[in-house]
Amino acid sequence: MEILVCVKRVPTVGGTMALTEDGQRVDTRMSGFTVSPHEECAVEEAVRIVERLGGSVTVLTLGPPDAADQVRDMLALGANHGVVLESDGKEWGPLATAKAIESSVARRSQLSSGYDLLLFGNEAADTGDYQVPVRVAHALGLPCVTGIKHLEISAEENKLRARREYRGVEEVFELPLPAVVSVKEGINLPRYPSLPGRLRAKRAALERLSPAWHAEGVRTLGLRLPEGRQHRAQVLGTGVDAVPALVSLLDELGVLS
Predict the structure, then answer these.
(1) Who's near 187: CB < 8 A, 6+ residues apart?
(2) 82-97 pLDDT, tens digit each
(3) How does pLDDT run across 142-196, given as a tens digit for each residue?
(4) N or C end: fewer C-beta atoms under 10 angstroms in the chain?
């Protein structure tokens, strides 16, 4: 079973979000980077499948040269190979990204055996794009299913069964392989990287390619940050002097009977 997992380098969640002066991009100069939680679960799912059925897991990312750090993080979790599609650092939209991935997959198929399964996270943590896996599947002529939280592979029958919930109803899909699947956080619990895994990932040779950028026919007008709710702490008092105010507050909240 040969599996490709596509991941994206995204800013670490938790800090205050800021935009560049032109309002075209998220300002990441003071941010750390990671991969989206959905994609980390996709890597874990791929590793588990290969542990059961044999084969290998390749992790691919499109981004600046420093995105190799995120690929190595995924190698430390058990992936076998890493591919970096190096860009000039600017944000590629879903159309250009899908085209670059599709070209890389097609190139692999020409040079050797292709992939049996392409896994994606359901959406990126920064831009929230849902388009890339669907566009890649369409370009490659492969069946595709999204939003999956349970996946079963039958190597003997050369097919997969995927399940997801939609409005309280469970949907079950059966797809022939090769296929494209996007998974959601919660399909599994990703493992922590081991020390041997980290050392192996640090020494691993990565394949680096320079994809051509394709015009998308769309442009960003601008980004805006939603107005956040202002939270202010109220000091009830100090020591025993705060007890009456605390009791009164608990009574207002209905905590006291």
Answers:
(1) 41, 45, 148, 149, 150, 151
(2) 999 998 877 788 899 9
(3) 999 999 999 999 988 999 999 998 888 999 999 999 999 999 999 999 999 999 9
(4) C
Q: Which domains does the chain have, with CATH numbers?
A: 2-209 (3.40.50.620)
Residue whose structure tokens are 């890339």: 132
Phi-psi region of 90 (alpha: psi -120 to 50; beta: other; left: phi over 0): beta
Non-local CB neighbours of 56 within 8 Å, separated by 6+ positions? 2, 3, 50, 80, 81
DSSP character string of 149-207: SEEEEETTTTEEEEEEEETTEEEEEEEESSEEEEE-TTSS-PPPPPHHHHHHHHHPPPE
Three-class secondary structure of residue 256 per DSSP: coil
Helix or strand or coil: residue 82? strand
The DSSP code for 80 is: -
pLDDT tens by residue, 33-57: 889 889 999 999 999 999 999 999 9
Residue 218 exposed, middle or buried by CB count within 10 Å (0-12, 13-18, 19+): exposed
d(CA 123, CA 37): 9
- Only one residue has tokens 């996946």, namely 151
The letter for the amino acid at 230 is Q
